[in-house]
Fold each of these.
Amino acid sequence: TPDTGTDALRDRIAAELFTARERTAGLTDCIDDRDLTAQHSPLMSPLVWDLAHIGNQEELWLLRNVGGRDPLHPEIDPLYDAFEHPRAERPSLPLLPPDEARKYAHEVRGRVLDLLAASPLEGPPLLRDGFAFGMIVQHEQQHDETMLITHQLRQGPVALTAPPPPAPAQAEDLPAEVLIPAGPFTMGTDTEPWALDNERPAHQVDLPDFLLDTTPVSNAAYQRFIADGGYQDPRWWTPEGWEHRNRAGLTAPLFWSRDGGQWLRRRFGTVEPVPDEEPVLHVSWYEADAYARWAGRRLPTEAEWEKAARHDPATGRSRRYPWGDGEPGTEHANLGQRHLQPAPVGSYPAGASPYGVRQLMGDVWEWTASDFRPYPDFRAWPYREYSEVFFGPEYKVLRGGCFAVAPVACRGTFRNWDYPIRRQIFAGFRTARTVEQN
Ligand code: AVJ
Ligand code: FE
């Protein structure tokens, strides 16, 4: 019979499964069936696809692989295999209609809760520390973020609302940048129980001195780049970036428009003035990279980002989060879709890293200079299609999560990746520079 430690883990898993499903319901019960089955952008699936795909992955990994059960509806598997059908093609598939998709996900969930009650949560690697359950919770939360992106792309009446993040308690004079002194640190993890394969294994990385922005780049700063003709000057852009800028006709972040002298943005169905103090959002890697060059700086590498976020110079250890090893609280970071926008730059002093860097977790995903590559001795686990098939120069790494990322799907080691042209994701950036040696 399970011991107490296992009972606590079982309760935590059940709570996380519940939280994820509440969020999924909130994202799919607020619009009608026509909106759920429509394709709002060729970049995205119809929301009803995500809904059944969430149930299908849960069935595959938990009921079939862990539980050894027979498939509930084997004929639908190919419809919800992300590798069989590109997103643009999904609306023309014979997908489960909304009510059947909900019923299917609900049916799977009931059986998963039975399985959880009977699982030892130890022994085979998929069960150890409840890993397979943790992976599926994160998978649902990742698709909830994807569905939130679809909501942002959707035209039509407002369906989602949330209060704005609280304004920072008092105006602080933060330094523009922070020195991260040279030295080795531990990147990646061997001990984080629900870390995904690309975050492993832990390894030492030695970095020279560098300087990193204290906060993400703000809309005010980004508007100076625009006003200074940054989008018209090929000096700031890589050749591929410049070519893309011209082909796509980029002149400002996605969802921005010009109204006389003022920039407006569309946010979940509402048009409002661009708030100067918020981190810039909805820029591609190419735009982030061009801004950094215009500013006389560069994007940080992934290793620099992680050292600034995790390394504790007092102990020489890497922490789970910038603020320490404790779980994210509302005072630490803007995570979990509590708000539908990032918080002003300089918010969350309690979430600062030991070096004093702010907002590394939450608010906006941060583009890094790095391609998505495996760490030394990487081992694909439990499936190649999570990370391994994406390694290579076509994808850039993003770090830190954003307001749409659930705490369970975010930590100092978490790695996200996307194409450098992508702008619909909730991505911004901060900049770095190398310290000149004399
Ligand atoms: C890790 C966010 C890039 O959404 O493409 C979801 C996560 N993998 N289902 C994605 C994922 C399989 C993945 N990202
Ligand atoms: Fe998926």
Amino acid sequence: QNMTTVSITVVGASGDLAKKKIFPALFALYYEDFLPEHFTVFGYARSELTNEELRNMISKTLTCRIDKRENCSDKMEQFLQRCFYCSGQYDLEEDFKKLDEKLKQKETGRFPNRLFYLSIPSNIFVDVVRCASHCASSPIGWTRVIVEKPFGRDSESSRELTASLKQYLAEDQIFRIDHYLGKELVENLSVLRFSNLVFEPLWSRQYIRNVQLIFSEDFGTEGRGGYFDSYGIIRDIMQNHLLQILALFAMETPVSLDAEDIRNEKVKVLRSMRALEVDDVVIGQYKGHSKGGKSYPSYTDDPTVPSNSITPTFAAAAMFIDNARWDGVPFLVKAGKALHYKGAEIRVQFRHVPGNLYRRNFGTDLDKNTNELVIRVQPNEAIYLKINNKVPGLGMRLDRSNLNLLYAAKYQSEIPDAYERLLLDAIAGERRLFIRSDELDAAWALFTPLLRELEEKHIAPELYPYGSRGPVGAHYLAAKHNVRKYTKA
Ligand code: BG6
């Protein structure tokens, strides 16, 4: 492999994402010996910092994931010695020439490869890519660029962005990151389905009644209102994170585990999706209140959010895949901020057993007692299956129990952060977990008409109290599609 030297330049090095996710992920990879022998990390941003100042800034967010691991502080020091800083404007080629000089000085091994991580707003992607490709791309090795969403706001702007990037980069140099694809349980989805006989044959309309994909945060947009207000929850979470999970969940069996085979199948699912109807969508926005002596803000209390904003902080949509496998199965996709809990999960409700012998033990509603498979993506990663079981003892009473796989109990090793897996894949040139441009197009094609309709008609979100279960409308939507409420097993 020509992985012998890699320089990783984090453009936008002083931003939140860089500090909280990218540098810590790089350090974790270094700690675990996953980085190539010759690597350097460069921070690039506008502010004037010395290498030492950058190192101080980075060191504040480095952790060893588990405290008291061996040599943690030595390893941190060694890692920081590989970090350097270059200040410059995002649109000045001469500043990228300076970066190129600095990169060259540090590239000691053979075949220097260069990875750029654009941790900056998307309106400056093209400037950076132009300057970097003209002045700082690797002369003999590969040059790759990781870009973070938002990739545009709708079909048109996304296509424009792709076309502009492609003036300077080939598609195989662009790594569009969706960090949900790097999460352990999302990656496990295919393993669970395709390597278990008890699941694989059941994965269709014949046995599955509905699927829920849920993203819930128990905090608002505090501190990010400016960004959030021009995107809203549909663009921030649904169009990417949840839709990607849906595509992985519902795709046909790929020819192989190769990136292109998997992404071919994902695109097919996305392109088979039915246009979204406004009637099948509920939007909400959180409002403040006081509870137990504590007061919770409204979304519009944020000074960077206009006081009359109708940007949704919650959305639920019933989606359908019009193909032979999923015909008529509702996929209820829900995402919200400032709700009652923090978590992301996939819930699969199965149909009832035809002619169930124990029908009378369940009372009148058989549907209330069907199996449910829950994949808890985070926190407390777990997979559990709700089954019906006889309560031990004389007589015949049934109840619902869980077959339970709790990661913390079963696996002692800690779960790597999504960014670690994705950075490692980008360095290795593995594209399986990155979004191809046709996938992106298909995702926007699905949401653009809905977003346009919501915006043109100024459809106001339903208000829901901060920390609640979200708008009541979402519960009606679930009921309309026959989605059973959660029952604690
Ligand atoms: C980001 C969104 O992509 O994902 C944020 O922009 C959201 O709004 C975040 O908070 C959630 O990521 P995670 O990994 O903390 O669930």
